[in-house]
Amino acid sequence: MRTVTVTATDIADGTYIGVENLANCDGHIDIAQDLGWVSFRSLKAAGRITARAGTGLRAGWGIRACEGITAGGGISAGLGISACGGITAGESITAGGG
C-alpha cells in the first residue's frame, strides 16, 4: 500500500494545499512533525493516518482510517472520527457528531 507524505510545503497558513486527494486516499497518510494544527476538508485513508509529534489534525468534515489514526498533537473533526484500528492523540480528541 502506498504512503502519501504531507510536508511543510503542502501547508499554507495551517491549511493543506497539496495535490493529493486526502479525502479518499487509497493508502496511508503520513504527516510531518512540528506543523502545528493542520486543517483538511476531510481525511480518509484505506490504511493508517499518522501525524508526527507536534502536529495536530483538524477536518471540517470527518476523519476515517481503516487501520488507525495517531496524532502527536490533537485530533478534531466537525463530524465523526472513526478507525478500524485504534485512535490515539498526544492531546485531545473531539468530534461534532457521527
Give a short summary of the structure.
The chain has 98 residues and is mostly beta strands. The chain has strands spanning 3-6, 11-12, 15-16, 28-31, 36-40, 43-45, 48-51, 55-59, 63-65, 68-71, 75-77, 81-83, 87-89, 93-95. A 5-stranded parallel beta sheet has the order 1-4-7-10-13, with no helix packed on it. The chain has a 4-stranded parallel beta sheet with strand order 5-8-11-14, with no helix packed on it. A 3-stranded parallel beta sheet has the order 6-9-12, with no helix packed on it.
Can you walk me through this structure?
- This protein has 98 residues and is mainly β.
- The chain has a five-stranded parallel β-sheet with strand order 1-4-7-10-13, with no helix packed on it. The chain has a four-stranded parallel β-sheet with strand order 5-8-11-14, with no helix packed on it.
- Helices cover 0% and strands 49% of the residues.
- A hairpin with a 2-residue loop joins strand 2 and strand 3.
- The protein has strands at residues 3-6, 11-12, 15-16, 28-31, 36-40, 43-45, 48-51, 55-59, 63-65, 68-71, 75-77, 81-83, 87-89, 93-95.
- The termini are far apart.
Number of helices: 0
Beta-strand content bin = over 45%
Work out the radius of gyration.
12 Å
Average of pLDDT: 93
Strand order in the sheet with the most strands: 1-4-7-10-13
Summarize the amount of helix as a percent range: under 10%
Main sheet summary: 5 strands, parallel
Q: H/E element string?
A: EEEEEEEEEEEEEE
Structural class: mainly beta
- CA distance, first residue to last residue: 27 Å
Tell how many strands the DSSP assignment holds.
14
Low-pLDDT segments, ≥5 res: none
Give the overall form.
globular
